[in-house]
Design a protein that fits this description.
The model has no long low-confidence stretch (mean pLDDT 96). 0% of the residues lie in helices and 59% in strands. By secondary structure, the protein is mainly β. A hairpin with a 4-residue loop joins strand 21 and strand 22.
Length: 250
C-alpha cells in the first residue's frame, strides 16, 4: 500500500477497499486472503471512503476537491462531483439520497444528492472551523461536526443546516462516532483523550467522560458489535505503536 488513508470492508462482496493517498489508487482486496483483485487509478490524494449498499457503489474523496463514484464490481469510474476544496469526512443517508461532506479549507459542509449526482447546498462553517470528522444521527436529523478551531462539537439540523448546539471538547479531534443504542458520541482527540458525550435529546448534549490516552492518538474506530472502540496510538520516542481496545459500557 502507498499511504492508505481509507479502509472499508464490504460484507456483501467479502472485499476490502483501500484508498491510497500517495499513488492515487483504490485497491480492492479479497476479504479472505487479501490479494489485490482490482486496482483503480487516477484518484490523486485519495482519502475518505464510503460504500452505498443500495447502489453497490463506492464514494471516495480525492484531489483538490471532488467525490468520485466507483463501481467496485467492474472497477469503472461512474461519476465525479466537483467540490470547493479537498473533502474530509463525509456521511451517507441510509433512508435518503444526501451525502454530507466536511470541506474544512472552504469553511463549509457541502450537501450532495447522490441521485443527481451534484452539490445541492452548502452550509457555512465560519464560527467553528477546521471541521474534519463527522457523524450522523439520521432518525433525529442531526449532523455532528468535530471542529479544531476552536475545539468544539457542533450539532447541525440536517433539515436546515443550522447549528442547534455546540460543546467544548478536547483538542485535535480526528475521529467521531455516534452510538445510537446508548445515545452517546465518542471523540478521539490528538490532545490525548477520548471524549464521551451524552445525547440527552436532539438539542441537548453533555460531556460524560474524558478518558486519558496518549498525545497524538487520534485515529479511532467504533464497532457497535461487539461494543468496542479501537484507538491507534502512534510511536513516539521510546513508546512503540500500539492498538488500544476499549469495551464500551452502558
Amino acid at each position: 500500500m502507498s499511504k492508505p488513508t481509507g479502509v472499508l470492508y464490504v460484507p456483501e462482496a467479502k472485499q476490502v477497499l483501500v484508498a491510497n493517498g500517495d499513488d492515487g489508487t483504490l485497491k480492492i482486496l479479497d476479504g479472505a486472503d487479501f490479494k489485490v483483485l482490482k486496482n483503480i487509478t487516477a484518484l490523486d490524494d485519495a482519502d475518505n471512503l464510503r460504500f452505498d449498499s443500495k447502489s453497490q457503489l463506492a464514494w471516495l474523496g480525492y484531489s483538490d476537491g471532488a467525490l468520485e463514484v466507483v463501481d467496485t464490481a467492474t472497477a469503472k469510474h461512474v461519476a465525479s462531483v466537483k467540490l470547493a476544496k479537498h473533502p474530509e469526512s463525509f456521511q451517507l443517508e441510509q433512508n435518503g439520497s444526501r451525502i454530507f461532506v466536511n470541506i474544512p479549507d472552504a469553511k463549509q459542509v457541502a450537501v450532495v444528492d447522490r441521485e443527481k449526482p451534484a452539490v445541492i447546498a452548502t452550509w457555512p462553517m465560519e464560527k467553528f472551523q477546521a471541521n474534519f470528522p463527522m457523524a450522523l444521527d439520521e432518525p433525529n436529523h442531526r449532523l455532528f461536526i468535530g471542529c479544531r478551531k476552536p475545539a468544539r462539537l457542533v450539532v447541525l439540523d440536517t433539515d436546515t443546516g443550522k447549528p442547534v448546539a455546540d460543546l467544548a471538547i478536547s483538542g485535535d479531534i480526528d475521529d467521531l462516532f455516534y452510538d445510537a443504542i446508548r445515545t452517546q458520541l465518542y471523540l478521539s482527540c490528538g490532545e490525548g483523550f477520548i471524549d464521551v458525550i451524552r445525547q440527552h435529546s436532539p438539542d441537548k448534549y453533555e460531556l460524560r467522560e474524558r478518558i486519558p490516552t496518549r498525545p497524538g492518538a487520534r485515529t479511532g474506530f467504533f464497532s457497535a458489535d461487539p461494543n468496542q472502540f479501537c484507538l491507534a496510538v502512534p510511536q513516539r520516542g521510546d513508546q512503540s505503536a500500539e492498538l488500544w481496545i476499549f469495551k464500551v459500557q452502558k
